[in-house]
């Protein structure tokens, strides 16, 4: 028996119209049509097939899905497709090209990479901080990480790793040179 016969008075849902969507992801122009109800996290992981960005809580509390959008750190699970249209997005994939970035090496040295689920969002939070402040204080580092939860290690190792990384990094470099970025090769 068909569903129409079982439920003759059911509401007929119209398909959601797609919207044209364009953005730059890690320096690469992307153009497609998407439902306006897609979240940026859905686009990154699904349409763009970038697996570094993680979605955990889905409501902006954990920070695992953090990316940089137009220079600002955002939780990609809270940004709808129409809000991300015509923006520039940086994901964890822009940090290193084939080898570990020196900051990632420091994180390993400090034992900061246990399960690794929160790491991409936390690294993006530090990238956003270094984009605006080349020599942050410990308090500024703690504040930058405050939106990114880690149940395995906490933030002690992350803070030590960042401080060690900053001690070894030249102050005069642009943050895209200091912490990756798609435009460091141009």
Q: Topology, please?
A:
Layout: H1 3-6, E1 19-25, E2 28-34, H2 40-47, E3 66-69, E4 72-75, H3 81-84, E5 87-90, H4 102-109, H5 119-132, H6 138-145, H7 156-168, H8 175-178
Parallel strand pairs: 1-5
Antiparallel strand pairs: 1-2, 3-4, 3-5
Helix pairs in contact: 4-7, 5-6
Task: Write a short abstract of this structure.
The protein has 186 residues and is an alpha+beta fold.
What does this structure look like?
By secondary structure, this protein is of the alpha+beta class. The protein has two domains: 76 residues, Ubiquitin-like (UB roll) (Roll), CATH 3.10.20; 78 residues, DNA polymerase, domain 1, CATH 1.10.150. It is 34% helix and 14% strand. The chain is built from eight helices and five strands, in the order αββαββαβααααα. The chain has a five-stranded mixed beta sheet. β1 and β2 form a beta hairpin. The longest helix is centred in the C-terminal third of the chain and has 14 residues. It is elongated, with a radius of gyration of 19 Å. The chain starts with a helix and ends in an 8-residue tail after the last helix. The C terminus is likely disordered.
Share of helix, binned: 25-40%
Q: What is the helix/strand order?
A: HEEHEEHEHHHHH
Write out the CATH superfamily name of the largest domain.
[2Fe-2S]-binding domain
How many angstroms does the end-to-end distance come to? 62 Å
Any idea what the shape is? Answer: elongated
């Amino acid at each position: 028996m068909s569903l129409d016969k079982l439920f003759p008075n059911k509401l007929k849902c119209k398909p959601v119209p797609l919207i044209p969507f364009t953005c730059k992801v890690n320096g690469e122009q992307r153009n497609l049509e998407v439902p306006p109800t897609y979240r940026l996290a859905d686009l990154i992981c699904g349409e763009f097939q970038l697996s570094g960005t993680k979605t955990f809580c889905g409501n902006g509390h954990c920070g695992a899905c953090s990316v940089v959008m137009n220079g600002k750190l955002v939780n990609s699970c809270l940004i709808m497709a129409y809000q991300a249209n015509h923006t520039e997005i940086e994901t964890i994939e822009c940090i290193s090209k084939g080898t570990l970035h020196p900051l990632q090496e420091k994180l390993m040295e400090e034992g900061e990479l246990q399960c690794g689920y929160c790491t991409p969002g936390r690294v993006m939070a530090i990238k956003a901080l270094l984009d605006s402040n080349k020599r942050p204080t410990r308090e500024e580092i703690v504040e930058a990480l405050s939106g990114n939860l880690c149940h395995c290690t906490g933030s002690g190792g992350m803070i030590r790793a960042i401080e060690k990384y900053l001690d070894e990094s030249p102050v005069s470099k642009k943050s895209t040179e200091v912490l990756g970025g798609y435009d460091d090769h141009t």
